[in-house]
Amino acid sequence: MIETRLLKNRDRYLNKLLGFRDSELVKVVTGIRRCGKSSLLKLAVARLKESGVSSDQIVEMNFESFEFGKMTADDVYAYVKERVASGKRMYLFFDEIQRIDGWENAINAFRVDFNADVYVTGSNACLLSSEYSTYLSGRCVEIKMLPLSFREFLDFHDVEVRDVASVFGGVRKRAVDKDGEQYDLRELFGAYMRFGGMPGVANVGFDQEKASALLDGIYSTVVVRDILERENRRGRRQITDPALLRKIILFLADNIGSNVSVSSIGATLANEGLLDGGRKGAPSANTVQAYVDALVESFFFYEIKRFDVKGKQLLRTLGKYYVVDIGLRNSLLDFRDRDRGHALENVVYFELLRRGFDVAVGKVGDAEIDFVATRADKKIYVQTTESMTSEDVRKRELAPLQKIRDSYEKIVLSLEPGLDDSYDGIKSLNVIEWLLDD
Question: Which has the higher per-residue pLDDT, 315 or 118?
Fold first, then answer.
């Protein structure tokens, strides 16, 4: 039986976070609520103590807690100042600090007034926008945290992936839990595609009822705390209709990976009768844009731009949106088994982000490439599809890549790669093995 533990290492993020230890930079961990930011801070504290840092050098404040939630920025400063150990290096951890008005002043003061190493988390992208950069421009580093990758998902379920000899030569991967019980990787990937990678969901196993309740709670928390409450605190009145916000969320969730024009969302909702009966006409494009921007700021959806491969420039029209966790999408859409191709795209997109790539949709003439992924040391073109066994599908997926004349790597990721592992230099890879090879 697969079991879980309450706190698992997230080495990818922990090593990056502590790689900046004792630098003057404020470490800022961002990401959607419940993706593991609080646990990451606890892991960092534990690692510090293992390295010899004493408890009196560490101050932890979680602003989701009632103990700290009513504080002002001045209260936060006073609380920390009272606990500063004279003559010692301090390590300050602030979880969900954006809930405190004027928090920027306190964080900047800690950096200036004390011998302190500062770590903060936040669930809104505005943490590092103009609200923050005014105070700490060039003096902070962002660690972008995402829900569990497929490999982390297996780790949270105490499943190890081993390479074993194949009867056809070479090796194949096998999933084994700590009791030696074997699992089919394709089935485990199916569970990941169904339940997603929110750590709390992984802790309840494969119970759809419990998973659905947890995902619904995450959704409600993001919408209420990170969008509606935040708008009220900022004194803005652009986002005042929770029902409209939910309709837009459902629309984007149902259309992940599709070309979307924000100006057309309201019209589509109105035409399909998805707005409340009392509403006359569609909301304005500006209104819809404000709602979509809020969803992107809260890390619920990620926007991806289109890139003209031949013209080598980003395009302003018809971007796409992907939901931060496929389990959240499934919960919102009542776990309907539909549009698995775009769901697979969604998983691949976030894996590319985890691996440090900047990602765009590729445009080559009238053809489209799912992802153009670039980073300092590498560039790859990626197509995703459920299967490459059909000749028609192969032609469709390979054609855009064949139009590109440069020498960068080109790959097609699928659940059924077919017999050939390469087509004119274009690799055909098993997406599960690619996800595990991180």
Answer: 118
Asked if 400 contacts 368 with a C-beta cutoff of 8 angstroms, the reply is yes
Query: Mind giving me the DSSP string for 144-175?
Result: E--S--HHHHHHHTTEEEEEEE-TTSSEEEEE
What confidence score (pLDDT) does residue 92 get? Answer: 98
Kindly state the tokens that stand for 310: 């031949």
Report the 10 Å Cβ neighbour count for 338: 11
Does residue 402 have a pLDDT over 70? yes
Ranges of CATH 3.40.50.300 domains, the chain? 11-144
Buried b (16+ CB within 10 A) or exposed e, 397-431: bbebbeebeeeeebbbbbbebbeeeebeebbbbbb
CA end-to-end span of the chain, whole Å?
Answer: 26
Strand 367-375, strand 378-387: pairing: antiparallel
Q: Report the C-alpha gap between 62 and 68 in whole angstroms.
A: 7
Q: What is the pLDDT of residues 137-155, one digit of tens each?
A: 668 899 999 999 999 999 9
CA nearest 197: which of 159, 162, 251, 151? 151
Q: Environment class of residue 228 by beta-carbon count within 10 Å: exposed (0-12), middle (13-18) or buried (19+)?
A: middle
As a whole number of angstroms, the distance between CA 264 and CA 252 comes to 12
Phi and psi at residue 208, in whole multiples of 5°?
A: -65, -40
CB neighbours of residue 19 within 10 Å: 11
What's the pLDDT tens digit per position in 305-358?
A: 887 776 566 666 678 999 999 999 999 998 877 788 999 999 999 999 999 999
> pLDDT: is 194 or 4 the higher one?
194
The DSSP 8-state label assigned to residue 229 in this structure reads: I
Q: Average pLDDT, whole number, for the chain?
A: 88
Q: pTM of the predicted model, to two decimals? A: 0.91
pLDDT tens digits, residue range 63-83?
989 999 889 999 999 999 999
H or E element at residue 401: helix 391-402
Residue with tokens 């088994």: 337
Question: How many beta carbons lie within 10 A of that of residue 242, not counting itself?
Answer: 12
* CATH ID of 11-144, from 2.40.50.1070, 3.90.1150.10, 1.10.1660.10, 3.40.50.300: 3.40.50.300
Measure CA 423 to chain center. Answer: 32
The predicted-structure confidence for 258-309, as pLDDT tens digits, reads as follows: 988 887 888 888 777 656 544 556 677 888 899 999 999 999 999 998 877 7
